[in-house]
Task: structure prediction
Amino acid sequence: MQSVTPASLVITQQDVHTYIVCSGSWTIEHLSDAARNLETLLPLSNITWDMRGITDIDSSGIALWQLTNRTFEEHGHRCETIAEGEDHSHLFRLLYSKPLPDTPMPPVPSWLYRLGKESYETFLGVGTFLAYLGEAFVLLFYTLRHPHLIRYRSIGAHIIECGAKALPIIAISAFLIGVVVAYQSVVQLQKFGADIFIVDMIGISLTRELAPLITAIVVAGRSGSAFTAQIGTMKMTQEIDAMKTMGFDPFTFLVWPRVIALMIVMPLLIFFADMVGIFGGMVIAQIHSHLSFSEFIHRLQGALALKHYIIGLVKGPFFAFLIAFVSTYRGFQVSMNTESIGQYTTKSVVNAIFLVIACDAIFSVLLTELKL
Amino acid sequence: MSLPIIEVRDVVTSFGENLVHDHVNCTVHHNEIYALLGGSGSGKSTLMREMILLERPQSGSIRVLGHELSTLTPLEAMQLRRSWGVLFQSGALYSSLTVGENIALLYNEYTDLNPKLIEELIKLKINLVGLPPHAKHLYPSQLSGGMVKRAALARALALDPKLLFLDEPTSGLDPLSSRQFDALILQLRDLLGLTIVMVTHDLDTIHHIVDRFTLLGDKKAITEGSLQEVLAVNHPIVDYFFQKGQHGIAR
Result:
């Protein structure tokens, strides 16, 4: 680019009058020095601008000139400009053709108002979620009376997507949980010479609590977020509207296949996580307590009552139901702007994990009270 | 006449097997409104994306403001990008920022002007494109289609570029808003001395404000010139595009 002299000014005071002689290029790249100079100038007298030396001016130069003038005029001084170029007056007339009113920021409502609004919206949100569930069940019963409407193919596709393809990540997570539990307990149990109880510890805690929970969390993060994003994208591209106009109900086509697939797959995944988790514990037991695999399994048969294992599996469909419903519900809430898809995906995962943990707590209380 | 603002010579572009440009040429002069015209898939948007450094042609040369695009250093490319403004088809305003913040972003990143002056400049730009003053505090999702285009134009004009690229500026607007937007572009060209390159297939826009244009089709630049010059050319795509002999604009 060719060399340009930056904007500069010479300020001279004569009695009660300030002369500002400007020169150089008053364009946005070259304006910063002049702007800093003018900022330090106190509005104490009338001013006269001499604009003869200006080679080039753009809207930022005009804005600076006008802004300075306005500061001086607010203090009751007069401003005049001599020898402004043709470009200059042209641009000025274009930019300042209309007055520029100050538009204050819209006021931020008080915290009390916001708290009330948030609470009310949360309350409404629970209502709409229940309405969503209700609509889903009405359509479920309708579909059950017309079994040819069931989307078997779609259910199968989701079983592969959410089940088979989730096996590696579930294997790694469950194995590590088994390892962690074994490590923590082996150290404590060794103090009492009760190494053998590591089998009880791992067998019961994994099958009853940890494997279902860890599986649900992985599934919520993996499939729940995918459901929200898939349905949200379909909503943004108006595919859902298109489906409705063709008489394809989104619940039978999108929601129930996902819910049913996840409910079928979840107990299987939990069973898989049980196996891998116990194997993780076995590995640590052998390394740390020299408990061989066959001894471990022999002890496990005695220690692990069937009910623990079954309770773990039974939780699966419940967790799956919650995850699938919350995530599809959040998908339908996505609106037309790009931010909302990320926002609702986050909400869906957070809600799903919270509901899974809450549901697990209810199970614990109920089953303990029932002496199971 | 000084050097052309944009000079495209023998540009060849292909995406995989699909050849888009087969030795395309065109020239944009100072202070004119220039349009790239063509049917869907004729590569007019791609040609513009190549001019603004978003894509690279396989071969050929593009000179913008005297710089050969294929041999730019990253630093030169940065400087060159600041000397033009781009209005994207859907506006591409940052949806997490208000209109005012969208414009302020450029000032805050590229200048060290004080906040008062930046504030004044934002107001000027919003005023210039004909938005109401309170639009400054609105988010893009709260704007209508026409307002989004105007806000995006204000952002494109933030750094006072001398060259402006518009991608389908009137698409998605109703006819009245389209004509108003055309008038605005014409006014800005005259008063700010801009050179404007646009992709469009709005025949009214071409009729009313475009000085010269290139008609792309069949992987080539079929013809270049003013509307009268192009209409004089005998070519099936020209006939098809302007519906010669029917109710089109050729009388």
About this structure: Chain B has two domains: 1-83+161-251, 92-160.
